[in-house]
Amino acid sequence: MDHTPILTRFGITALNDMQNKMLEKVASSDNIVLISPTGSGKTLGYLLPLLPLLKEANNAIQVMILVPSRELALQIEKVFRQIGTSHKISCCYGGHSMRIEKNNLQDPPAVLAGTPGRISDHLRRGNIRIDNLQVLILDEFDKSLEMGFQEDMKFILQQCKNVKKRILTSATTLKEIPEFAGVQNSEVLNYTRGKEESKSLLKVKVVHAKGQDKLHALMLLLGSINAASTLVFCNHREAVNRISDHLRGYKIDHGVYHGGLEQPDREKVMIKFRNGSIKILVTTDLASRGLDIPEVDAIIHYQLPATSEVMIHRNGRTARMNMPGTAYFLLAEDEYLPDFVKGVPDELRLPEKVVIPKPALWKTMYIGAGKKDKINKTDIVGMILQKGALQKEELGKVDVLDHSSYVAIKASRFQKTLALLKEEKIKNKKIKIGVG
Questions:
Q1: In this structure, what are the phi and psi dihedrals at residue 91, rounded to the nearest 5 degrees?
Q2: What CA–CA distance (Å, rounded) separates 31 from 182?
Q3: Domain residue spans of the chain
Q4: Which CATH number is associated with domain 362-435?
Q5: What is the pLDDT of residues 64-86, one digit of tens each?
Q6: 4-190 with 197-347: one CATH topology?
Q7: pLDDT in tens, 341-399
């Protein structure tokens, strides 16, 4: 099968070693355990080999993908749609309308992605049947166990009587795979990086705050490194909100991301982080894995990771795909590096005065229409370039959702473009256009 047209849609010219190996092994093996770092392309790695297995005339769920979070479910849906097949995919997760999901499932999708809690709920209500399921994928399996989905997964897997292939993925090596997963005698593909490679790509530095005032130290650090993109990790959402309040006091553009946000708010902040409109994202460990986040320059452990696995997933957001990155451990006077941090990191000495990080080069424009309104990316790009007096290089990433769209525009041109477009129409429809 020629994958060139698919790769073009993703803006890549070739599959990586892991993805090529998955094409080979999924075709020949029934049980596969894939261990590969965050950001290595696991989703495309297991979706591509499934394409020859999907049958057009089969009016049943053929592939089910269990994931630990709604974000990962939505990412899988996005990647599958981008592949561009004629097969239907549906997404089910907590916080989404059960009624909408039930209606959508009445026409069974070929591929179903969802969280164990919501999938088991649909099974108990009789909204889905999986007795003819052919392929089961347990994506980020270790994270699902950490989040307490073991009983839901056991229940679901008990219904998978006729599954022919099982694929289990994880970003870290699993000490033990529970028997209920059903992947005994499996083929293990381990693509975790060796220590030497990790060391060459990722720099680790320690930063000491004076006294207990880590907020002030964080401000000094952010101004000092002035990274193009930074993730600030906290253990609790209260800390995220406290940092956000502090950054607002300095009028620093940033985003926050944690489980207390509504799904549309999470989507919006991730769009702005991906398109470069915000350079700083303050987050809980919810953003440490399972999200489609571009290369990040710096990771700041504002609150220390509780375990080695948490640290690995946080640090895995930078120094990826042969690009350099730095992880900073911010320590109060009475804090020490966790035992699982190997070696002695270099110390970064903070400046005496706060220097405000330079603002982002992009700003996001909101357009009140999307795919369900028959508006596509070509419509939006055409309107903005023609009516907004922009050059192509002044137009950044365009994200088209169901009923809204977001467009990155060079910050230096943003206000003028917004003024020019305020009364414009798309396909002869008056549409709300404003700041994203």
A1: -125, 130
A2: 8
A3: 4-190, 197-347, 362-435
A4: 3.30.70.330
A5: 999 988 888 988 999 999 999 99
A6: yes
A7: 888 889 999 999 999 999 999 999 999 999 889 999 999 999 999 999 899 999 999 99
Residues of the chain with pLDDT below 50 are 194-199
Q: Is the dihedral of CA 66, 68, 74, 75 positive or negative?
A: negative
Residue 135: helix, strand or coil by DSSP? strand
CB 52 within 8 A of CB 135: no
Per the CB < 8 A criterion, the answer to whether 244 and 302 are in contact is no
Other Cβ atoms within 10 Å of 160 Cβ, number: 16
> For residue 342, what pLDDT is reported?
82
Task: Report the length, in residues, of the chain.
Answer: 436
The pTM assigned to this predicted structure is 0.70
CA distance 420 to 375: 20
Q: Are 139 and 66 in contact (CB under 8 A)?
A: yes
Mind giving me the DSSP string for 207-244? Answer: EEPSTT-HHHHHHHHHHHH--SSEEEE-SSHHHHHHHH
Count CB atoms within 10 A of the CB of residue 5. 9
Helix (H, G, I), strand (E, B) or coil at 171: coil
Q: How far is CA 72 from the centre of its chain?
A: 6
Contact between 29 and 187 (Cβ < 8 Å): yes
Q: So what's the pLDDT on residue 197?
A: 42
Whether the Cβ atoms of residue 302 and residue 233 lie closer than 8 Å to each other: yes
Give the chain's radius of gyration (CA, Å).
Answer: 23
C-alpha to C-alpha distance for 3 and 72, rounded to whole angstroms: 24
Contacting residues for 254 by C-beta, under 8 A, at least 6 apart: 244, 247, 278, 279, 280, 281, 282
Longest dimension (CA), the chain: 68
Residue located via tokens 């994200």 = 399
Distance in angstroms (rounded) separating the CA atoms of residues 419 and 433: 10
* Residues 34/168, Cβ–Cβ less than 8 Å: yes
Task: State the CB neighbour count (10 A cutoff) for residue 114.
Answer: 28
Domain 197-347 grouped into CATH 3.40.50.300? yes
DSSP H/E element including 187? strand 187-190
Query: Is the CATH number of domain 4-190 3.90.190.20?
Result: no
